[in-house]
Amino acid sequence: MKLGIVGSGMIVGDLLSFIEQIPEIELVHISGTKRSEEKLRTIYQEHHFQRYSTSYDELLNDEQVDTIYIALPNHLHYTYALQALEAQKNVILEKPMTSNIEEAKELQRVATSNRLFLWEAITNQYLPNYYKIKSLLKDLGKIKVVECNYSQYSSRYNAFKEGNILPAFDYTKSGGALMDLNIYNIHFVVGLFGKPKDVHYYPNIENHIDTSGILILEYETFQCVCIGAKDCKAPLSNNIQGDQGCLHVPTPLSYIGSMELLLNDGTKEIINDNKDVHRMYEEFMAFVKMYQNNDYQQCYEMLEHSMIVTEVQTIARRKAGVIFPADEKHI
């Protein structure tokens, strides 16, 4: 895989901290804005990219790049991904996939019609501990309640309260707690139980954006509550409760660390199948494997999963009145 990257923020730093452990990925080109040129030059030198640019067109026209990783603010995901796909590049798109389901469906259409890979970079779907949870569901009996809580006080919230609105809290940039933190909860639940039959969102809204909120996902036989908060914090707790036992995950669902299986018969087991690697390592290994094997089927199956998640967040926001500029032509 010959990789181009657009963006130079924190998530790009995370990727570059381990990417050398995946020799199948060749770093070719990093691109960003003129304002970030000094930072781009430093990244280019330190991580041995072949070149850098301050023009996205240069990256799109780079014939040595076959895959572009898009690590930009949420509201830019759709346009940058669409341009990449139209330039016949495979795309790795940071979560959340797009601002709304209409944009996601268009990217899906372009990718599949051109037989291109399109992956949403969502860590939890590829973690060994997540696969382990799937295998343990049968031990819990009939599922009754699912609870996910990802509450993390954001340093950017202090700036937000002072009137300095950064992208994470900017509704014009498709920010907010649902898109940033609760999206991990949605991916977690949808990956285990599929599409819910109904969705309700009860947000705390300040300056048009949800700084925290409670999402209810209704399933045929159980209820699920997903809490995402950037304006307050609490001990993290995620529980899948069945009539035969409970699975407790006391870590963020972005990486799903050590978890505890608690059965009604008194059985208690601490489980951790994750490797001692960066939380993003497994997803990029999976992308490389699909790429090398021309496994479009698995890629498009994961893309269908992303469609459901994007539909859930779109319905939830719109019902609650959290509207982005990207929504306006669709509602």
TrEMBL record:
Residues 139-245 form the GFO/IDH/MocA-like oxidoreductase domain. It comes from the Bacteria. Coiled coil: none annotated. It holds the Pfam family GFO_IDH_MocA. InterPro entries: Gfo/Idh/MocA-like_OxRdtase_N, GFO_IDH_MocA-like_dom, NAD(P)-bd_dom_sf. Residues 2-118 form the Gfo/Idh/MocA-like oxidoreductase N-terminal domain. GO terms for molecular function: nucleotide binding. This is Putative dehydrogenase. It comes from Longibaculum muris.
